[in-house]
Amino acid sequence: MPKAPEQNIFHTYDAERAGSGCSCGRHGSQRQHDDEQEVARARRAQDVEALTEDVVEESLMRALFPRMAERRDFLRAVGKNTARAAIASVLPLGALQAMAQEKNGALEKKDLKIGFIAITCAAPLIMADPLGFYRKQGLNVSLNKTAGWALIRDKMINKEHDASHFLSPMPIAMSMGVGSNAVQMRVATIQNINGQAITLHTKHKDKRDPKQWKGFKFAVPFEYSMHNFLLRYYLAENGLDPDRDVQIRVTPPPEMVANLRAGNIDGFLGPDPFNQRAVYDEVGFIHILSKEIWDGHPCCAFGTSEEFVKQNPNTFAALFRSVLTAAAMARDPANRSLVAKVISPAAYLNQPETVVEQVLTGRFADGLGNVKNVPGRADFDPVPWDSMGVWILTQMKRWGYIKGDVDYKAIAEKVLLLTDAKKYMKELGQPVPEGAYRKHTIMGREFDPAKAEAYVNSFAIKRTA
Fold first, then answer.
1. Among residues 38, 86, 89, 252, which one has the fewest Cβ atoms lying within 10 Å of its Cβ?
2. Reported pTM
């Protein structure tokens, strides 16, 4: 590791955050010293490589000494330089890379391009880059920020990206040839659960009852998205036909707040941080979190093509381990502020850190004058349950995206790599769940994946005959 800068953004090696006088002897007061250091820290936080070093060191220090008093006593006892040497000794990056390749076979391809959309849903695959999780597996990953989901789809079909951030319904649709040429995709992990919301323009604060929404214009990020299917579900459960009583427009997530501000839409069911950004910009309020529609619903996924998996099995395994490691770190509530700091810079989300932190910690302003505390607002359970795939297929059929007989389980199991996920979770020492199909509850209605066709037919508002 390089020599620690005086302005490490987390004050990782600063045993004395408070006291009289200037600690370095170059300033008239400790306040002047602190002000200069904070400016330097802010500048350093925009440097991705520097941010990587600081976050890794801070995470390790917290793991070694969970209590602040313990960290302070250790730093007082040994000093900053000795502390850094100790941290470096437990992070032998080169050795970890060599061990990974020796254990799992030579990587067929080391230089990879991974597409992503700048939303908090992508936190695991994003943070795996600055935190070095890809590098620990011997991979040299280039994260390619992409403008919209149609482009993500096209770049995967055209093999411009090796792997990608997906909306969880996208690999299913792509594999079936719905909305594009058929190319078999495989989902390694669910990137996030929950983490979305219905956000309305501030002018609609007196229209909290969905029955008042006839004629509204809503945005969703893509047709084959949980956002589209959850919005349709919510509207229909409240007696509105999503195809006849409102308009639903596909809008790239980064453009949602601007369209809300301009009055082009009345609201959106979109990914964070844009729900919270609408509140931050005082143009919208959070009507309902997606967690309140279906607690634990999948949103985004991480995957690649079946062709890539077959041609690069060791590389795919290394990717799998990298993202699962990141997901485990992101899932721990104690790490959420660190994750927010890692993914907020311009290279990734390009959002105010306070906005991202509100999303990830679940302590947030709702735009209605309340500060809420919902720890599970966003979460990062990576398990690609087959039952989730079956539910997605039921909604695709319900709304006319697919027709005729559907072999729900066969399609879900072909796309979702649940067995592989469990294998690598076990290898990494992570808890491994049992089973493949779970019953889920959406707005009080139970979904039994064993009765998928009956579930589709049970809805009064649908496009199927």
1. 89
2. 0.82
